[in-house]
């Protein structure tokens, strides 16, 4: 499981030109679910992201989490985060979980974030989406939540 977390002042997801999810200050989270990922990994990664200290305190240091800042999360499923580009010029997506495995883990990740007390907005799993965001900082953190990570 891989997550790209962007600190945002605002973000939204559109499907067929209609806004389906929107947040103000918080995190836009692009989530890739890999083959063999587990519910425990989804829970662990959600907890880590909720507590990731990438929001500034009064002194301007990264010392506040999403929970501390009162921000929201916008979670978008993105299997392309699992792309393997080691061979040739066409990415391989064989490491990405198939939709029937990925969607329940995506939903579990979102539910785990919500269980932390966060407002969680979601993209539409499997749909072509337009993601609009204003990266605040810019701050972008990549987390690999897999127990297989090195």
Sequence-ordered SSE layout with sheet pairings:
Blueprint: E1 2-15, E2 18-23, E3 26-32, H1 39-51, E4 55-56, E5 62-64, H2 66-69, E6 72-77, H3 99-115, E7 120-122, E8 130-144
Condensed summary:
Helices cover 23% and strands 37% of the residues. It is of the alpha/beta class.
Q: How many helices in DSSP terms?
A: 3
How many β-strands, per DSSP? 8
Strand content: 35-45%
pLDDT under 50 segments (min length 5)?
none
Give the mean pLDDT.
Answer: 95
Helix content: 10-25%
Strand and helix order:
EEEHEEHEHEE
State the major sheet.
6 strands, mixed
Multimeric state? single chain
Instruction: Tell me the radius of gyration.
Output: 15 Å
Basic shape: globular
Distance between the termini: 13 Å
Q: What structural class should be given to the helix and strand makeup?
A: alpha/beta
Structural overview:
The chain has 150 residues and is α/β, with parallel strands linked by helices. The protein contains three helices and eight strands. It has helices at residues 39-51, 66-69, 99-115, and strands at 2-15, 18-23, 26-32, 55-56, 62-64, 72-77, 120-122, 130-144. Strands 1, 2, 3, 6, 7 and 8 form a six-stranded mixed β-sheet that branches. Strand 1 (2-15) and strand 2 form a beta hairpin. Helix 1 packs across helix 3. The longest helix has 17 residues, at 99-115. It starts with a strand and ends in a 6-residue tail after the last strand. The mean pLDDT is 95.
């Amino acid at each position: 499981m891989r997550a790209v977390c962007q600190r945002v002042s605002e973000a939204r997801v559109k499907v067929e030109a209609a806004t389906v999810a929107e947040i103000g200050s918080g995190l836009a989270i692009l989530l890739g679910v890999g083959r063999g990922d587990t519910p425990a990994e989804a829970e662990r990664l959600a907890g880590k992201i909720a507590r990731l200290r990438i929001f500034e305190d009064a002194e301007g240091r990264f010392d506040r989490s999403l929970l501390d800042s009162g921000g929201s999360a916008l979670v978008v499923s993105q299997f392309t985060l699992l792309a393997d580009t080691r061979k040739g010029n066409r990415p391989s997506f064989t490491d990405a979980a198939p939709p029937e495995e990925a969607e329940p883990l995506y939903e579990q990740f979102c539910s785990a974030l919500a269980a932390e007390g966060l407002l969680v907005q979601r993209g539409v799993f499997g749909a072509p989406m337009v993601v609009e965001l204003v990266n605040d900082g810019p701050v972008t953190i990549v987390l690999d939540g897999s127990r297989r990570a090195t």
